[in-house]
Design brief:
The chain has 81 residues and is mainly alpha-helical. The protein has three helices and no strands.
């Protein structure tokens, strides 16, 4: 019964979510609006499905990379990766 309520709540929440969102300027703070804006950008049809190894996946990765750079984050891996 608990699972059914959880699924029902999720479906209801998704039904209440607008299909579009007017992007707003984002900031380094993590706010619901910032997460919403970035989620809608990544989920947009312009990202062409976001499949790994495909043009949409590359486009999404470039967007995420640019956002992280804009926020001043630097790679922590070997040789700047």
């Amino acid at each position: 019964m608990r699972l059914f309520r959880s699924i029902t709540a999720t479906v209801f929440a998704l039904a209440q979510t607008p299909r579009t969102h007017a992007p707003r300027p984002t900031s380094a703070d993590i706010t619901a609006d910032d997460v919403r804006t970035r989620t809608y950008i990544i989920a947009d049809d312009s990202m062409e499905g976001r499949d790994t190894g495909r043009r949409g996946g590359e486009r999404s990765a470039r967007y995420i990379r640019a956002e992280l750079k804009r926020l001043g984050l630097e790679p922590a891996g070997d040789n700047g990766t």
